[in-house]
Design brief:
The protein is mostly helical and 687 residues long. It is 51% helix and 6% strand. It has 27 helices and nine strands. Strand 2 and strand 3 form a beta hairpin. Helix 18 packs antiparallel against helix 19 and helix 18 packs across helix 23. The longest helix is centred in the middle third of the chain and has 25 residues. The structure holds zinc ion. Zinc ion binds next to helix 21 and helix 23.
Amino acid sequence: MSVIPRITRIVLASAVLCALALGQNAGIQEVHGINVANMDRSVKPGDDFYQYANGDWIKRTEIPPDRAGVDVWTKLGDLSNKRMADLIAEIAKSNPAAGSQERKVADLYNSYLDEATIEAKGLAPLRPHLDAINKIHDKKELARALGESVRADVDALNNTNFHTPNLFGLWVAPGFEDYEHYTAYLMQGGLQLPDREYYLSNSEHMQEVRKQYQAHVAAMLKLAGFSDSDARALRIVELEHAIAEKHRSLAENEDIHKANNMWKQSDFASKAPGLDWHEFFQGAKLDHIESFIVWQPDAFTGESALVASIPLEQWKDWLAFHLIEAYAGVLPKAITEERFDFFGKKLSGTEQQRPRWQRAIFVVDAQLGDAVGQIYTQRYFPPEAKARAQAMVAQIVAAFRKRIEALDWMNPATKAEAEAKLSTLYVGIGYPETWHDYSNYEVKADDAFGNIWCGDLSDYQRQVARLGKPVDRKEWSMTPQTVNAVNLPLQNALNFPAAILQPPFYDPQAPDAANYGAIGTVIGHEISHTFDTEGSTFDSKGRLRNWWTPEDLKHFEAATARLAAQYDTYKPFPDLSINGKQTLAENIADVAGISAAFDGYRASLTGKTAPTQDGFTGEQQFFIAFGQNWGEKTREAALRQQVMTDEHAPGEYRSATVRNIDAWYAAFDVKPGEQLYLAPGERVRIW
Ligand SMILES: [Zn+2]
């Protein structure tokens, strides 16, 4: 589980067209420590800590037309992208040798930029794929085609992405029980809109979204040369609606105990009749795999039955539409723009597309991320930066260990396991120890469509090839140039990419108070996932095993239920509340992260008084830095999408979680009657 919401990273659901919601003000701040100019000191910290820490920044910041939102993370994202762009430009200029990784980076980037060639080719790259769909003449051939379309585009526990527009998605990760080998996890899919709620909710807003979506489907089909586009669009949306009815909700998806369903390949025909599974697995090149973990068995049963009950022609139109949608970014401009018009403008509120070169960087990052990452870290992540970050992580891990030792409600047996988990935790700092090998990925200078197609396919083949092989616990699931951090529960590992270990999150020139409040709380957040609702179900080896005693679990669940109830009361819109259960694991991690980072900070002072900054004490700086992690401005449509589809609550509510921390009350002299005040007994204390 990561620290920042997926929507902040990817607003559009397609890998081809992913638009990061990155902010303006690309320059790195000159300030070291908390940014006083961003605060609104007319607001009482006890009334609205978010406004207090970020109010003036919010007032003066405008969301650029090509963004769905801006936040403090976006500055770093922009910097990282700018560096990647410079690196790629350099690589391209150096005329790298044919077949080298550098050549692939240059060719992929340039082919995506070459709009003239894309325009001149028109629909030609799409044609053979559409012809293949057109030739499907029975459900057996349909099953094979559905299998062939499967990609490794979902991720249940690391980068948490449960969405794939293909019928099903593959995730390759250590097994729940066979934790020493890579196992195939299969996930529900089949929807273009971000979540089942977009199809099933009766709110006025969603009804309007569906109307616009159907018009978009028709427009895409028309642009791709289909006749009767309106009638086909209606049937495609009807089919997706039927699929949505079979889907599990996001909150249910996060319940691991409901996900551990091992099906043998031979079980599928009886457990999920309808789809010709033999053909499907052949198409997906998974026919040699004996067993799978089926994350949402009810959805597999339901979706498979739909393959039998819904007419072939309707499925063929659905397949064709999904293909066009997935490759819209490398098809003629009219198609690219129609996709953006719906997914960017209507669904996320973004006014303009990102410049082509920025989208090209996202594509290179998605397809050849490690190739760029290798050069990126050599240039931008000196060994000193790595050493300093390691020291800080060690300090916070130690603080966490002390907190666990001191818990009066936890049994010694549970504590011993928690201790074992901390001792074996792998903390990756900056960059991975081994890099992805892209030798099976062929890239051509003049074939943007083919490059994306082959990139997705070669990634899929790489993932399938790992199945059954021994697990490398030190493997990374983020590239070094990603501004984020992640906990990998099945590997008992954390990744802190190089790109997040810089100002304003980590600034060697800033006072410790600000560093602990900013990056320290992020580090604490990730460590705490090791012990949260999910972490408590995986032991020190990454095996799915409940290592808590029943009494401990009861205590934990009672405490966390109170946190869920606290978040349920937050209402970003009159008709839409935060879902306390859906965001629970992240909210626990925030509370725990602040607590451990604060202890780590105190310990780092070794009894000395912290220097003040602009009159703020060390404690105050710590909390303000935390609050400033979450300053953001998001367009309404995108914010609604986040509230409905993400495990992370919006920044405003994350920053308000300081109300659960005793030290915050002391730091700002918060009194009863102030908006955020909670009586000591009402504060949620977990760790
Ligand atoms: Zn998290």
